[in-house]
Every structure is written in structure tokens, then in C-alpha cells.
Amino acid sequence: MSEIKKIVLAYSGGLDTSVILKWLQDEYSAEVVTFTADIGQGEEVEPARLKAEALGIKEIYVEDLREEFARDYVFPMFRANTIYEGEYLLGTAIARPLIAKRLIDIANETGAEAISHGATGKGNDQVRFELGAYALRPDIKVIAPWREWDLNSRQALLAYAEKHGIAVEMKKGKASPYSMDANSLHISYEGGILEDPWDEAEDDMWRWSVSPENAPNHATYVELTYRQGDIIAIDGKIQSPNEVMEKLNKLGGDNGVGRLDIVENRYVGMKSRGCYETPAGTIMLKAHRAIESLTLDREVAHLKDELMPRYASLIYNGYWWSPEREMLQTMIDASQVNVNGNVRLKLYKGSVSVVGRMSETDSLFDEAIATFEDDEGAYNQKDAEGFIKLNALRMRIAAKKK
């Protein structure tokens, strides 16, 4: 402990991290630097500055990282059509490498020897934060209070806060029974009745989307423009990556798109039930596959599909900064050079349907060959006979042996 003079804390300003801040000061007799990030969680982050000041913090970082998050993390992930265990769009996992990076950047800027976070010893986030931190600065020390202290309940945290004069903002009205995490890609829900996988989530739990039953009785159409695998415009209007996500979250949420209820396998070994709202991500995945269906070579598309589960696991398990993820990203990005064009989608009562796709410059779809009408010699159907026989050769030989 004596080696640690300064610690950078990922600080939200809530009960947990406010208690952690004071605990670090007392247990380590160290100066604490706070870092609060706005990654689109939809809550004001500036109050965290005032809370940190009230606890005697001199170096306070409050940063708007929404555009960087969308541009450098979410968009690269969606170029790979990334989805974990067939369903999860990795909304929590993809935010962690950016937070880890900024923790290390700030540690380097301020001369801190250690970083600290509020992730528990049961979850994935501790792994994600720390793998990222060690990849970026091998000598960094990590302090994870939930693995050290005996404050293992909300009541214990409240008692500690009261004892040490830590202001705790008590929200008016009914408190949410769920543990929630939000950013511009998604909002997650865990705990409460969700701990029983048989119980259906209450409809008033969801924050971003109307229920499909209550969505409008008319469809909403939206057109997305792609350049090198990324959305650059919505309905013809140029948008930044973060603006794209904000717009699609609104459109999707209004139409009941993006709700998910799953049981997933955590990296630490347990199964966990969680609910997620990812309206923009649900639309982006559907649309990206549609534009790739026109512009990607068949074998390239199939190879991407084979690599995607590995890429998804790397992100889920916290290996964003690993050499293997960076290698895969290079391959994925190279595949997107000709992924240009437009996709038209229909949003209706929780569903996303592709109703049109076009690429004036890079489409590999040839109407003259694909037509069911007279192709005027563009495709010689007799060639198929030899193709089939050659591909059947090994099976015909084996069948004769039987």
C-alpha cells in the first residue's frame, strides 16, 4: 500500500463509487483522481464533479466520450456483424475497453501508480477493465474494493456513507429493483425478479422502448447510407456515428424494436439472466448484413461469419486490446472497402425488415445472370451438369464401395 501514492478511480458519483472513493483515501492514504465518462448513459455527469470536490478531490476528469465510443468501438464492432451466443449485441462489453483506455491515459498524465473500479468479483466487468489496463500499461496496479472489503450489501454501504458523512442522493419515488447499465448502444437490466429465468420481466422495467403491442399501427421506413461498412447518413442526411445511434435508438424504441431477454454464459463461469434494450444496434445489424449481401464476395462473407463468434467472444471476455482482436479487426476492416450503398428498412411493432438494398458502385448482384427470364446467354445452364457431377464424385465413389 505504501507504494501507491495516487489512484485513478472510475467514478460515477453514485453510492458505490462514492464509498469507494472515501475507502481508498482511508485504506491507502493515497490521493485519488476521479474519472467520469459520458458514453451516452442519458444521465447528467457533471454532478459527479461536485460530489468529488465535496470529498476533497483536486484532480477531476469529466469527459464526453460519446462520439469516440460510437466511432472507434461500436462501429468497428458492427462491421463484423458481432453477436455473442447468437443473441447478445455486447452493449456493456464494448464500452469497457474505452473506459480502461482513459483510466490508463489519466494515470499516465497524473503520475498515478494505480487505478480502481467498482466492478464486483462475480461479474465480467472486472475482467474487462483489468485485461484492458494491463494490455495498455503492464506495470499498473489495480485496486478492486469489492474483492477486498467486507461491505457486501447496500445497507452496509449506506451505513459507511452515513458514518463518514458521504452525501447520498435518494431518488424520489419507487426505486428500481434492477441493476442497470446504460450507454448509447444499450441499457441492461439484471437482478430483482430477473434472477429467476422463468419470471417474465415487468413491462414497466423497459426504459427506451414501447412494448411491441403498444407500438404504432403503421410502419416506419428508414434509409441508411453506408460507406466502407459504416452508416454515414439517415434518410439522406449526413450524421456522425453518435448521431446515427441516437437517431436509430429513437426510431427503434418508438417502434418497440430491440428488446432481448437471455441467459448468457459469463466469462467467470456462471450463467446469468439479463434483459437488454438495443434499438439502434438491432437495426444496424440487420442493415449491415443487407448491404454486405450485395457487395461482399461469397467466400469473404462466409469467412467473416466463421470468424465472428471468436471475435464476439474476445470482446465479451475483455480482450479488445489483445493482438488477436486487432488482427481480426484488420481483416474485417479490409473486407469493408466495397461495402457501400443504401439499405431501406421497415420498422413495425418490434420487427425490423429489410425491404430494399442498392449499391451503384459495388454491387455484385447481376440481374442479367440472376433473372428467371431469358438471360440472353449470360449464363449457360448446361455448365451446371459438369459442376454437379464433379462435386458428387467423392460421394459416388463411396456409394459404389458400399
The helix/strand series, from N terminus to C terminus, equals EHEHEHHEHEHEEEEEHEEHHHEEHH
Fold-level CATH name of the largest domain: Rossmann fold
What's the shape? Answer: elongated
Radius of gyration: 25 Å
User: Would you count the extended β strands for me?
Assistant: 14
Q: What is the SS-derived class? A: alpha/beta
Helix content: 25-40%
Task: Give start-end ranges of low-pLDDT stretches.
Answer: none
Subunit organisation of the chains: single chain
Strand-residue proportion: 15-25%
The second-level CATH architecture of the largest domain is: 3-Layer(aba) Sandwich
Number of helices: 12
Distance between the termini: 74 Å
| Major sheet | 5 strands, parallel
* Fourth CATH level, the homologous superfamily of the largest domain: HUPs
CATH top level class name of the largest domain: Alpha Beta
Q: How many domains comprise the coordinates?
A: 3
Question: Widest sheet: strand order?
Answer: 3-2-1-4-5
Question: Can you walk through the features of this model?
Answer:
This protein has three domains: 6-73 and 90-163, HUPs (Rossmann fold, 3-Layer(aba) Sandwich), CATH 3.40.50; 179-296 and 338-358, Argininosuccinate synthetase, chain A, domain 2, CATH 3.90.1260.10; 369-401, no CATH class. The model has no long low-confidence stretch (mean pLDDT 94). Helix content is 40%, strand content 19%. β4 (114-116), α5 (125-136) and β5 (141-143) form a beta-alpha-beta unit. The protein is of the alpha/beta class and 402 residues long. The protein contains twelve helices and 14 strands. A five-stranded parallel sheet has the order 3-2-1-4-5, sandwiched between helices. Strands 10-9-8-13-14 form a five-stranded antiparallel sheet.
